[in-house]
Amino acid sequence: MTSTLNWCAGTRKVRGVSKYWSEAARQAAPYIPGDQPQGKVIKLNTNENPYPPSPKVLAALRDEVGAQLRRYPDPTAAQVRTAAAELYSLSPEEVFVGNGSDEVLAFAFQAFFHRDLPVRFPDITYSFYPVYAQLYQIPAEIVPVAADFSIDPEDYFHSPGGVILANPNAPTGLFMPVEAVAAVAAHNPSRVVVVDEAYVDFGGCSAAPLVREYPNLLVVQTLSKSRALAGLRVGLAFGSPELIAGLDRIKGSFNSYTVDRLAITAAEAALRDEEYTRTVCAQIVQTRMEFMHRLNELGFRGTDSKANFVFVTHPVVAAADIYAELKERGIYVRYFPAPRTADYLRITIGTPAEMDTVAAALAEIIKLYSA
Amino acid sequence: MTSTLNWCAGTRKVRGVSKYWSEAARQAAPYIPGDQPQGKVIKLNTNENPYPPSPKVLAALRDEVGAQLRRYPDPTAAQVRTAAAELYSLSPEEVFVGNGSDEVLAFAFQAFFHRDLPVRFPDITYSFYPVYAQLYQIPAEIVPVAADFSIDPEDYFHSPGGVILANPNAPTGLFMPVEAVAAVAAHNPSRVVVVDEAYVDFGGCSAAPLVREYPNLLVVQTLSKSRALAGLRVGLAFGSPELIAGLDRIKGSFNSYTVDRLAITAAEAALRDEEYTRTVCAQIVQTRMEFMHRLNELGFRGTDSKANFVFVTHPVVAAADIYAELKERGIYVRYFPAPRTADYLRITIGTPAEMDTVAAALAEIIKLYSA
Lengths: 371, 371
Hints:
Aspartate Aminotransferase, domain 1; Aspartate Aminotransferase, domain 2; five-stranded mixed β-sheet; disordered N terminus
């Protein structure tokens, strides 16, 4: 239950601002990831997969541990580009590979968004987007989602400097049909539309096949969620060759080799074992439905999540209280205390046994606070 | 002998500039890494270690391949910070860990150098520095090294926006005493001095112990060379807690987890097996001296390299010709065709057997061209 983060991030130790920092470092507003608690806890706070990576991934990794680790990896990660391209009948020139989708997104902000033209994204979405905008000094037009957290695609037509949307959105889990994504791309013909599909394999449908029709559409995915490889950091982008070339230009100006040999090996094996991925994702979707049903019985309401988490609120008990009570019981979920999300909890879907424990704890907490 | 880079970098496929690219993408001038030829070649072009990683590293990696790869890594890579700190009797708050020293250097440019004040570095040095300056729009004051490639530390006193030096320098291999590094740090009290020690373990001496005395000194190292882990991408920085916090602010605004679980495992094990590193480095230094002796006999002249490469020129045969002839024979070395380096070749030190083959090939080529 202790965290390894005590002295982390330096920022917490060093109060204030250093005279040695650049303006960029002074003005940076780093993203705060979910805690990484150690020991015997139920960890449902960072949307990791409750199942291990494919056995074929682990076997491939064991084979790759050897003397050749002294050699630099292929800077293009060609074997991953090829395997990813085949998933959507694209070509390797239409795929980019990065050190986690966070790196891919950071490169996309640098490659496609502008210092003098605002990029548009929702107020409730992956909270790294405003962090990138701040770091790269890109102005942002932040569009409120509706009261039910839904996104109106028309709000993203004719953006001055491009668009970024998560689909399914985080932390709401709401999925926008690919037709809506196509409409946003079609109505921004001279700007880039980035769609972050980190959670698409849990009930959504990818817009990747649309990248041939829309040369301004970049579809970003990750192997951290559905492929259970959060520990190895591999992200993908699908797009026209000119968008991929833009990402390559930024990457090549930053770090020639961002994806290491073992990550390349694992990613290729994972992308080539779609049956395992589909089986795991189907189980998680099943568990999500069962868990949501039990939460409804306890009075919770939630979004129609198509992700590997639910986003729920209780009419009587405050989310902050539930969050603290769960933590007390060794159950970590995510709580975003911003105004529009402060009534909600985001709970990652774990194994059926883990969700049984969580449901029982929630029943107890609700009873306690409703008494 | 074929390269995997044919379709790489996108930039080679996409001619010209895309209307979707930002100014940053348009103006980027990506670094071009050495080729990664496949098949049976002698690869002495990217300064990799000819020996495998420590057996303890490989054993630790095999142990870490398992279900826990589904979990995000520790975002602080605390176990690597601790192991690295112990090498120089520093504390973990004085260490930063990144995805290769290239990432660490890119963060340092963002965290410590300025859009309105030029950073100073030599004309002949690691050619990624001007690439970072271009990407982050930091002006540069480029100081010519002397005719013998030596660096006068006084040229780096009172820099308007900070300093970056490689020590030993690349591709010359020349080492500047730590006293000179201390003098540069002392004469830039309100600016950051970055010293890139990628090659320090092959005959240099690290300035890392000086970071307590000079809070403006950042010492960057890599596990790619002396620890034979180029394939896993781990870089380090040593500095005052306020400099490390500056790097953490940039990293936390870019990618929460840049170093993956297997890289963390390998890095810790490598840093804790100093005996292996020292043995391997001593062997490489020995081979370098023997190889340089044979090159001198063939009429080559070279710098007094303290790195795992030599930097040599021949009075009769042009470097470009030697480079092409070696490549013809399946021997890859590095050739930098810029004006001041076009007479030289950089040859990585491999195993004694590899260097025997290279020396024999060079003897043949010199004879051929001198006839």
